[in-house]
Amino acid sequence: MTDIKYAWSALGGDPALLSRTSTVVREGALQGRLPVRELARACVGVCALAAAELGAARGGLREVPEVRIDDGAVATAFVSERHLLIGGRAPVNFAPLSRFWRTGDGWVRTHANYPHHRERLLRALGPADSLDAALAERSALEVEEAVYAAGGLAVAVRTPEEWAAHPQAVAVAERPLVERERLDTARARVLPTLDGAPPAAGVRVLDLTRVIAGPVATRTLALLGADVLRIDPPGYPELPDQHADTGFGKRSAVLDLAKDRRAFEELLASADVVVTGYRPGALDRFGLSPEALMERRPGLVIAQLSAWGAYGPWGGRRGFDSLVQAATGIAVVEGSREQPGALPAQALDHGTGYLLAGAVLRALTEQLREGYGRVVRLALARTAGWLVSGAGGAGGAGGLPYDGPEPWLAETDSALGKLRYALPPVSFAGGPGDWARAPGVWGADSARWG
């Protein structure tokens, strides 16, 4: 079931703390054939509960603060990229070549938002103006393999049954929703007692993530007081609108991990958390595998995010929310007889992002009690499996109506212009209601701690 009990158990949380949560149910929020509202509610709820738990532990409170989950706030935040306005301009969320295409025997979904992915897609399939004809002559699986072989991104649309029989699906299903392990025997850094500060105050987070899921996780940690420094490689800028949506609370710097190793090692030497969101193994050559990181910085919390998981035949593949929806049968369930469809939000990205943040917060709480370095791993495909398996778990009638996002939108001035944005849905008694800083220009900050 896509409920908060299951998600909290996946994080290793004390089930007794669930009594500290309450939900404002709003009918009409995140409507779909699958229980998207319930998944979103659970992901945000456990993240908020993990934050409240950490705050209580660091603040010496006798009781964990009460957590309030409002479907309206959650629904608004899960489509934050659609509500964003930058100087009155709405962002472009999908490039023209990021869409469904009919093939000779079915459908494929492509992703070409980034220029290098667009180039590789066209290298595999031919000019953009002839893609419809080229794809109509090939099978969906043939297109999938050809594009991936060229370093691009395309996935055949599968039914839930077809995906369940795929070797990657079998490998994913064998893993827990949240993988958690202790990787060293070192005592973690002792975090100072809070004096009215947010739960993650003083925690230094190196953010090596891109797109949505990872940046949502680190955006949430920044909301909760962490010093989050996002590091990107030169020559591969984040999409500007995407950065504007997920850059709240953080600083952003460019660093060449091959040439600027000394600068990175200085950052790592005083980091508490490292979050990575590149395809599995992509950062290992820079000494950023969990084992290598923990050897140089014992007591770290390492959080890893991937599309398909770091195992199985697709363990080294790139992926995005829309592609995972297509591969796992979600696009078929949410579609029509005429063509595949999509969830009412990029819920795999957003949901996994809040779960990842919750896993980091729970790991920090466990460190306060036990020490040791921690590794947590999540995959969009595993979150998708949870959603599909809870297909009968959608909530029934009742609750308040969802009349739109306006109560959960705000405006602020920024270096990018005036922003309209979705307020954070993570809410607990005494917790922050908004980020302390607006996003700045991508890559404009120094690669050092604040």
Overview of the molecule:
The protein has 450 residues and is of the alpha/beta class. The two termini are 42 Å apart. The model is unreliable at 391-397 (pLDDT under 50). The strands form 5 sheets. It has a 7-stranded mixed beta sheet, with helices on both faces. A 3-stranded antiparallel beta sheet has the order 4-17-16. It has 17 helices and 17 strands. It has helices at 4-10, 36-59, 71-77, 80-83, 115-125, 131-136, 140-149, 160-164, 167-173, 213-223, 240-246, 261-268, 290-296, 321-327, 330-333, 347-370, 380-389; strands at residues 21-24, 26-27, 67-70, 85-86, 100-102, 107-110, 154-156, 179-182, 204-208, 227-232, 251-254, 273-276, 301-306, 374-379, 400-401, 409-412, 419-422.
What is the topological layout?
Layout: H1 4-10, E1 21-24, E2 26-27, H2 36-59, E3 67-70, H3 71-77, H4 80-83, E4 85-86, E5 100-102, E6 107-110, H5 115-125, H6 131-136, H7 140-149, E7 154-156, H8 160-164, H9 167-173, E8 179-182, E9 204-208, H10 213-223, E10 227-232, H11 240-246, E11 251-254, H12 261-268, E12 273-276, H13 290-296, E13 301-306, H14 321-327, H15 330-333, H16 347-370, E14 374-379, H17 380-389, E15 400-401, E16 409-412, E17 419-422
Parallel strand pairs: 1-3, 2-15, 9-10, 9-12, 10-11, 12-13, 13-14
Antiparallel strand pairs: 4-17, 5-6, 6-7, 8-14, 16-17
